[in-house]
Amino acid sequence: MNYTNIDFDQLFGSSDQTNPVMMLIWIVPIIIFVFYGQRIQLQITSGELKKGIKKLEEYKIESRNELIGYVKKNMNPKDDPTKKIDRFLDYFTIMPVNLDPTGIVVKVRHIVRAREDYSREHVKSLSPETSDFELTKIQTLLEIATSLQMIYKVVNHLFLTAKKQNNYPLILPLQMMMPFIMEEAEAMHKAIPAFKMGQPIGDGIGPMVIGKMMLESKKELIAFQTVLSETEYAGRKLFLLKAEGPGASVGRPGDAIQSIISKNKLDAIIMVDASLKMEGEESATISQGFGAAIGGIGIERFQIEDIATKNEIPIFAIVIKQSIKEAITLMTKEIADKADEIRSQIYEMIQDNTKSGQSILLIGVGNTMGVNQ
Amino acid sequence: MFSKEKTIVAYTVEKCKLCGVEAKRKFKEGDFLFAKTSKCNSCDGMLNIEKIFGETLNNISTT
Questions:
Q1: Is the pTM here over 0.90, yes or no?
Q2: DSSP string covering B27-40, please?
Q3: φ/ψ of residue A168, rounded to 5
Q4: I need a surface site. Which of A3, A15, A276, A297 has the fewest CB within 10 A?
Q5: A345 forms bridges with which residues in the sheet?
Q6: A187 touches B at CB < 8 Å
């Protein structure tokens, strides 16, 4: 084909100066896109975001209704708890000022624990006879409903602000974050049945492994909702620590270590926890590493790292990779089947990194819902 | 475009400490890990809950 004899005048119609239709076809869209391009993009993006926000609203309403229904069924409160629960759902936390960050962790711990303690007491006040097991479940359901309400409120606020201002750049960060927000909200929504039924969740793999090692030994309550037992392995003294099951609790491992170290010398700490997998990584794979394997806001991790540093105790970690959804919904078969392998890796780690006569602290980190000891 | 909702069924696996016999059944409310459930049919031991997990319906084996 010969490309040298293309008639550009004919192709673009420029030879025909009097063709107004061709001129309109070229110029009108350019004018529209110059002046209204962002508004058109805003309308298209708004449609996608609206679908997501509608879904978030459904999650918010469903989680609230599930919570109210569960409280009515299992706590048998004398009065209708709806009004009180709606008030609990609106609780907010103001984090301490960080202009001078020195000592901020202690302040955060104080505020977070005060919130936990007061919300537990407020939930209990609905029906004081409720067992601690039921109370931990209701408190977790309340946390889920509160989080879903907060996510909906924030996303809706950002969306409405962008729409009100007709500001397309303002909606862009929300559009980019929306898939991640939806993934987390969906995971929280799907976690509700597991917590209602008292089933172990993916995050409970750490407590499951350590809980089984604790079965034959005497248990003592060492910190709030946290149990400790002692056993021996290959001439080493093992301290086994986990949140007290089978309620929905993560315990207070930081306080527990503080208490253990005040009476005993520790030579190593091994932490077993669930960890978020990266995209492309296979679920339920086991990885070993160094450092404190514990999630949350950071107050427990800070306390553990502080004690370990002051006492020169090495911290080893074994993590079980999983997605956010797997971590907070009913434990999958693939994760549950890894428990024995994790236990043998712990024993191998003890043999490789410690000597006979030494003391090792093993911590099963995570939510111990449905996991006894 | 069409996302299919997967149904997840919860299962409980019980194991006898004495003879090692394992049995899989559907999860019942009140089940929790390491709880003693009933006497073993094969020996005098007790059955303990060894695992609780969820399986998607199309993934379920018939063991």
A1: no
A2: --TT--BT-EEEE-
A3: -65, -45
A4: A3
A5: none
A6: no
3-state SS, residue A94: coil
Run of H or E residues at A231: strand A226-233
User: What's the burial of A358, exposed, middle or buried (CB within 10 Å: 0-12/13-18/19+)?
Assistant: middle
Does residue A252 sit in helix, strand or coil? Answer: coil
H or E stretch covering A236: strand A236-243
**CB-based contacts of A180, cutoff 8 Å, min separation 6:** none
Q: Say whether B34 and A215 touch across the interface (CB within 8 A).
A: yes
Q: Is A341 on the interface with B (CB under 8 A)?
A: no
Q: Name the maximum alpha-carbon separation found in chain B.
A: 55
Is the backbone peptide bond immediately before A314 cis, with ω within 30 degrees of 0?
no
Collapsing DSSP states into helix, strand and coil, what is residue A5?
A: coil
Of the candidates A313, A302, A339, which has an alpha carbon nearest to the alpha carbon of residue A108? A302
B60 touches chain A (CB under 8 A): no
CA distance A183 to A324: 8
| Cα distances (Å, whole numbers) of residue A264 to A210, A238, A239, A259, A348 | 20, 11, 10, 9, 23
pLDDT in tens, A117-174: 998 998 899 888 889 999 999 999 999 999 999 999 999 999 999 888 888 888 889 9
